[in-house]
Amino acid sequence: MKAISLFLIGLLLLTGACAPVSSDKKEQTDKRIKELISQMTLEEKLGQMSQFDPGQLGGPENAKQAIKDGKVGSILNLVGAETINELQKVAVEESRLGIPLVIARDVIHGYRTIMPIPLGLAASWNAEIAEKTMAVSAVEAASEGIHWTFAPMIDVSRDPRWGRIAESCGEDTYLTSVMAKAMVKGFQGDDLSDPKTIAACAKHFVGYGAAEGGRDYNTTLIPEVQLRNDYLPPFKAAADAGVATFMSAFNDLNGVPTSGNEFTLKQILRQEWGYQGMVVSDWASIAEMIPHGYAANKKEAAERALMAGVDMEMASDCYAGNVKALLDEGKIDMATIDRYVANILRLKFDLGLFENPYTDETLAEKTLLAEKHKEIAQQAASESFVLLQNKNELLPLSNDISSVAVIGPLADSPHDQMGTWVFDGNKENSVTPLTALKAKLGDAKINFAKGLEISRTKSTEGFVAAVEAAKKSDVAVLFLGEESILSGEAHSLANLNLQGSQTELLEAVQATGKPVVVVIMAGRQLTIARELQLADAVLYAWHPGTMGGPAIADMLLGETVPSGKLPVTFPKTVGQIPIYYNHKNTGRPADYEQWTDINKIPAEATQHSLGNTSHYLDAGFEPLFPFGFGLSYSSFDYSNLELSANSMGTDGVIEVSIDLKNTGKYEAAEVVQLYIRDRFGSVTRPVKQLKGYQKVTLKPGETKNVVIQLKAKDLEFFNGKDYVVEAGDFDVWVGTNSQEGLHAEFSVNE
Ligand code: BGC
Fold first, then answer.
1. Which of 291, 373, 561, 584 qualifies as a FRET site for 9, CA 20 to 30 Å off?
2. Whose CA is nearest to atom 11 of ligand 1?
3. Range 636-749 has CATH code 2.60.40.10
4. What pLDDT was estimated at residue 8?
């Protein structure tokens, strides 16, 4: 067993972390920061450490006065280059030290050109397109004067009841880490001072996605082993990618709220990882330590957050009102405050705000919704779609089809297709599936009937028209799912079936006997077992953004081919949650021999006659769809799994290769996925873990040899004491999803 001490890791990381700024430039900046701090009053320092929403500043005139007095370091949610420039001018020209403001905004998946929700982007398994979407988001936001986004959200999320799963990259640590890196790169580019880039923020640090019962803001209990193995790695990946800022979170983690958590913020982030960027709190999360029961008042809350290392307070005034008293009482010292102010000023220097505080007000018009941006949005949407079912190869529809019924509350819902966390997108710019299908096929071929006004509508009044539309068409395409308001922050759900009378609408249309395609737009995985029975084909489109309509139309008509794979496990029913592919095995893993369907259990069966394994009598033990699942219009054959060696040392590498053949009729992309299992460990190991993948495009009949490197280092885990790569036997699978794949074995030697 090779154990690497935490101390050593910390030391190694210290050298590699943070944005690539030349050491000369860094030295110069540090000098300027020091000089500036030496001139600052305590009030000015606390101003830098405070971020407010314009509403909290009490109107434009009061805001200007507060900025002039040096009481505001950052504003969030201020929009428009002109307005931003106006306030920036006050900061730069009228405040005593002329320190520019840093303007922040939640640019989560697009600014004006709205990209698919992050969960959809993760379903593309394409880091390159994820990076491009964030680069577009950055350039658009920057053109309106935004310097800093609160994204990417990289909370590993294993509970679809939690509305914020929409903002996440799903349940897997590895995939989230890959996406985290790509998104940071997309926002920040190579140089933060480039006016086309903005600073990113890794949030929410940490464990927020594990809210009990999927209810937002709820308590999280995550043992350290799981925290380090499952929840922290995406944040580490973001730190390594040079993310400029981190955000602490709302959640109570093992009894200590994350905005006052010295273990996560101080020990892990600063000491072990050597992170040198800036840390902002979440909205009022410092003050919320009072209702959490972790601080008696704002002063104590400020003390806890300062001790943990939160540099900037968002939207509450615990710092501004209490730091003086804390200093006077010797509870904190000025050197600590100066260090935090330095972190904030460094961000402003790195963004080039001292040299270039203003935004060219003519830029937005030339930038927002540029054709190239819409193309990227459409490609991202297209790659995010996951084909779940395609009976009798109903899809793609033939281009010369004579008529299509377009039905459902999301067929023409330009607002809802944008999804959650959209502040700056306009529904007028969305192209809906109805519009896109009409443009492709001509108005005459489309029979449109909404059926239901919105996704929650219960009234079945619209069914008659919907059934009529289906009857006079060759095929019915139903756009079902959930409105954007049903996912996102504070929008948790206890029931994940389709809302309103959507399932009944599908039943009514299916009863016409016409072939039925269901397209689902949603912010999360929904429980759609019944809908799968009713529909011939099901395409999961998440909330696809501005260009969702054309992306869907092209795919329905075979101009593009599905290549998305699920970034989350789909449960059959809510009661199976939490259900995720990389679970532990238990001492009594389930199998079909020892499971009896509840409907087949004889009356008065004896207690042990059903088998004693880990399952549900009424829902079994398998998901509706496994993580990594996704069909294509084409088909693929995996063969010749080969390993370059059957064993390696604890610092070795094995190359795992397979031949992938496109055996279908379409040029198509497949995500080749590599999973491993560490059979035994000093702590129990998951039954499977994704360790690598490649998205490969093949022409019909074409074969490619796909090689994925597996380093012993990739097998490392935290065992409660140390990060270790343990000698022993491993399984490896390479395949099309987390449940299917060619299998081989290898071992790691001491
Ligand atoms: C959310 C953050 C967000 C912040 C600012 C909070 O409610 O949790 O993710 O960045 O608001 O809008």
1. 584
2. 283
3. yes
4. 41
**Percentage of the chain with pLDDT > 90?**
95
Query: Order of strands across the sheet with 723-725?
Result: 2-4, 723-725, 717-718
Asked whether the beta carbons of 408 and 451 are under 8 A apart, the reply is yes
103-363: CATH class: alpha beta
* Spatial distance between the Cα atoms of 412 and 446, rounded to a whole number of angstroms: 13
Q: Domain 376-556 is of which CATH architecture?
A: 3-Layer(aba) Sandwich (3.40)
For the chain, the structural domain boundaries read 103-363, 376-556, 636-749
Token pair in block for residue 67: 């900025």
Does the pTM exceed 0.90? Answer: yes
Provide the pLDDT confidence category of residue 18 given band limits of 50, 70 and 90.
very low
Contacts of 317-324 with C-beta under 8 Å, sequence gap 24+, read 317/50, 317/287, 318/286, 318/287, 319/46, 319/49, 319/50, 319/286, 320/46, 320/47, 320/49, 320/50, 320/71, 322/298, 323/42, 323/46, 323/49, 324/42
Q: How many CA atoms lie within 13 A of 697 on its CB side?
A: 6
Identify whether 282 is a catalytic site residue: yes
Q: How far is the CA of 106 from the centre of ligand 1 (A)?
A: 7
Nearest CA to ligand 1 atom 5: 283
Alpha-carbon distances of 596 from 278, 570, 576, 614, 623, rounded to whole Å: 55, 22, 17, 12, 16
Question: Which atom of ligand 1 is found nearest the CA of 77?
Answer: 12
Cβ atoms < 10 Å from Cβ of 6:
17
Write the pLDDT tens digit of every residue in 400-444.
899 999 999 999 999 999 999 999 999 999 999 999 999 999 999
Domains 103-363 and 376-556 share a fold: no
Pocket test for ligand 1, best of 56, 150, 167, 198 (most atoms within 8 A of CB): 150
Out of 282, 285, 288, give the residue to mutate to test ligand 1, the one with the largest number of ligand atoms within 8 Å of its CB. Answer: 282
